[in-house]
Design goal:
13 helices, 8-stranded parallel barrel, alpha/beta
Length: 377
């Protein structure tokens, strides 16, 4: 299902959190229209999770071992396809459920924010049994679309692979194999590139048709850049546009809110960063479209006659509804990402009891900036 950004039903997404906290979050929330992000950094964990869910749902499981050709990419594809299949089944069950208290489709609409769709649902509830009510219910069933299964690649985590002491081709490196695994899947969603720029990874994207627009101007697999400021957005956006790759979303994140990794800027607060994006968004899009259309035409690709929909989102450090409203109303942010609050929701993320208790009791004194990175970046 190819869902346009503007068609998504919620104003927030659940970002990637660690390697395992959100690895199966789409299975828990996608059927309610909520998009979330899976980390592709650990293909062995993805394979273990695939085995777990195959056993749980009584599906055939054949292990993808290190001896399997293109093992890392194959594991990524296999896990994403399984999650997609399971969510498709959940959505069909939800759409077929009855509009009564406690049902799946009732929960779907109860969770929606105020919108035209929510108002139609509320209107339906006021009607007595009638052909009109049945007609609205049929429409609501069709419009109960799932959130997307998005994926994340930390671009700098791109270790080269060796076999018997011999260096494998660049395509077998961690980030490139992860990208290939996602590209080979049937998903229609987004891939988020975080932690900086990787030129060889960006040069690899044009090898896959799903990143290009179709006759209707729709892109099946969208590129999202996680950026810390406008300068990073324009530099990386131009590099990709020159390759015929459109950035559908610039996901702004404070440098001290990056999944436990600190990429601190030189004292620039998030407010001025957001202000610059608000004031220069159209300029950014126009500059990128010139380069993008030129690249597509030069390679005989379908070129939309106007820029593809582009949104600016912000995540990290949002703690209250009023803060989110400020982002929407003043900074004109299109969507937000809520991470840490969902670590306290066992129905959404994987957090063991001891860790959960630590999070609940944590104070400002428990947070500190370490000089150590397990990823060496």
């Amino acid at each position: 299902m190819n869902i346009a950004i503007s068609e998504q039903t919620h104003s927030f997404h659940i970002p990637v959190m660690g390697t395992g906290f959100s690895i199966d979050t789409p299975l828990k929330v996608a059927r309610y229209g909520i998009s979330s992000v899976i980390s592709l950094v650990d293909d062995l964990l993805l394979e273990q999770m695939r085995e777990h869910y195959c056993r749980l749902h009584r599906r055939d499981y054949v292990e993808i071992t290190d001896r399997t050709e293109d093992a890392r990419a194959t594991r990524v594809t296999a896990y994403l396809e399984l999650i997609s299949d399971l969510i498709d089944a959940q959505v069909k069950e939800l759409q077929a459920s009855s509009f009564e208290p406690g049902s799946e489709i009732t929960r779907y609409y109860d969770l929606l924010p105020d919108s035209e769709l929510k108002r139609k649902y509320t209107q339906m509830l006021t009607l007595d049994n009638s052909p009109e009510k049945e007609s609205i219910q049929a429409e609501l069933r069709i419009k109960a679309i799932p959130g997307t299964i998005d994926v994340n690649i930390m671009t700098k985590v791109d270790r080269d692979r060796f076999v018997n002491g011999e260096k494998m081709p660049p395509e077998q490196a961690d980030a490139m194999a992860g990208l290939r695994g996602y590209a080979n899947s049937s998903l229609s969603s987004s891939i988020i590139f975080s932690a900086g720029m990787n030129r060889r990874l960006y040069a690899y994207i044009p090898n896959f048709d799903d990143f290009y627009p179709d006759e209707k101007g729709m892109v099946k697999k969208k590129v999202v850049l996680k950026v810390s400021d406008y300068r990073s957005a324009i530099i990386q956006g131009k590099i990709l546009a020159k390759k015929g790759v459109w950035v559908s979303e610039f996901r702004i994140e404070s440098g001290l809110n990056c999944g436990g990794h600190a990429f601190a800027t030189d004292g620039i607060l998030i407010g001025p960063i957001l202000e610059e994006f608000k004031n220069r968004k159209q300029e950014l899009i126009e500059q990128l479209y010139k380069l993008y259309s030129r690249a597509l035409n030069a390679n005989d690709r379908i070129c939309p006659d106007k820029p593809i929909e582009t949104i600016i989102t912000m995540q990290g450090g949002i703690g209250t509804f009023s803060e989110e409203n400020l982002l929407f109303n003043y900074y004109k942010i299109d969507r937000t990402g809520w991470g840490t609050p969902f670590l306290l929701v066992p129905e959404v993320t994987n957090v063991d009891k001891d860790h959960l208790e630590m999070l609940k009791k944590a104070t400002g004194d428990d947070v500190y900036l370490s000089e150590h990175s397990p990823l060496g970046i």
